[in-house]
Specification:
The complex is a heterodimer of chains A (109) and B (114). Chain A contains no helices and 9 strands. Chain A has strands at residues 9-13, 18-23, 32-38, 45-50, 55-56, 61-64, 70-75, 84-91, 103-108. The N and C termini of chain A lie far apart (38 Å). The model of chain B has no long low-confidence stretch (mean pLDDT 93). Classes of the chains: A mainly beta (109), B mainly beta (114).
Chain lengths: 109, 114
């Protein structure tokens, strides 16, 4: 399984944008880049995913580097409810979903 | 919309006891997964099932068995529980062709083995 590298933790102030980076230098051409987050005491929830082009949805934006070796999850205006662990995951055709250690995001009022 | 339902939510076992964790999804998904999450750690895949009747080992399968009873249900069994299996267990499901689909997770089963 292809691996991802994320910072252990990041901090943000409320209502500021947050850019969460992810490196995946061994990504293959058909791997999709997925992001999930886990709020305290809850199961993970899907945030966004993409293959090559940048993606937007109601929760976040995903910016994918042209060589696909890195990506950035963008929360446009962080709220206290966005405090969570964010996982960047590569999904291949084996149908597995393998988590790494993620980035713990703290949001301050 | 129930999504992915796990039972029980909490369980305390004595060492050596057995139990089955139940998981059901109502989204007609083909793929289902079992994970464990130890305190302060990320999720680790125990077993997964790509379709009814098929199962495959994940990262940490030792000490567990699974059964994909039908398309809706995927159970995880601990035959002889050990303190090292104290963890929070999550079940998940996703549609076939997982790369381009999202996965849905249950709320977890918190298991303590004493």
């Amino acid at each position: 399984d292809a691996k991802t590298t994320q910072p252990n933790s990041m901090e943000s102030n409320e209502e500021e944008p947050v850019h969460l980076p992810c490196n995946h230098s061994t990504i293959s051409g058909t791997d999709y880049i997925h992001w999930y987050r886990q709020l305290p005491s809850q199961g993970p929830e899907y945030v966004i995913h993409g293959l090559t082009s940048n993606v937007n949805n109601r929760m976040a934006s995903l910016a994918i580097a042209e060589d696909r070796k890195s990506s950035t999850l963008i929360l446009h205006r962080a709220t206290l409810r966005d405090a969570a662990v964010y996982y960047c995951i590569l999904r291949d055709d084996t149908d597995k979903l393998i988590f790494g250690t993620g980035t713990r995001l703290q949001v301050f009022p | 919309n129930a999504g992915v339902t796990q039972t029980p939510k909490f369980q305390v076992l004595k060492t050596g006891q057995s139990m089955t964790l139940q998981c059901a999804q109502d989204m007609n998904h083909n793929s289902m997964y079992w994970y464990r999450q130890d305190p302060g750690m990320g999720l680790r895949l125990i077993y997964y099932s790509a379709s009814e009747g098929t199962t495959d080992k994940g990262e940490v399968p030792n000490g567990y068995n699974v059964s994909r009873l039908n398309k809706r249900e995927f159970s995880l069994r601990l035959e002889s529980a050990a303190p090292s299996q104290t963890s929070v267990y999550f079940c998940a499901s996703s549609d076939r062709g997982g790369r381009n689909t999202e996965a849905f997770f249950g709320q977890g089963t918190r298991l303590t083995v004493v």
